[in-house]
Amino acid sequence: MNENRIYRVCGYSILVFLVMVPISSELDLFNYFTLVFEALSLFSFGIAWLIKGGALGDKGKIGKMLYRENIPKDNS
Question: How many CB atoms lie within 10 A of CB 41?
Fold first, then answer.
């Protein structure tokens, strides 16, 4: 459930950044606007990819916060 919210935020931010490229070219907001917005959309995609792959860690505090999993404790 928490993952889906992150995926939606990343997806919407990718769309917003891609829409901002032609808008900022018309308004001439700043130099290198295409590079900045494409880099931000790639960063959002990377975050979603890392969360889906579990590369951010699925154990401990991060796993409980991101994945809402109940990880059993080692009783060794």
Answer: 19
Q: Residue 42: which residues within 8 A CB-CB, separation 6 or more?
A: none
Specify the residue for token string 């290198």.
32
pTM above 0.90, yes or no: no
| Tokens 């860690």 -> residue | 57
* Count of CA atoms in the C-beta half-sphere (13 A) of 70: 0
Residue 18 has pLDDT above 70, yes or no: yes
pLDDT for 72: 56
Three-class DSSP category at 31 = coil
Q: Which residue has the tokens 């409980």?
A: 64
And the tokens for 47? 């975050």
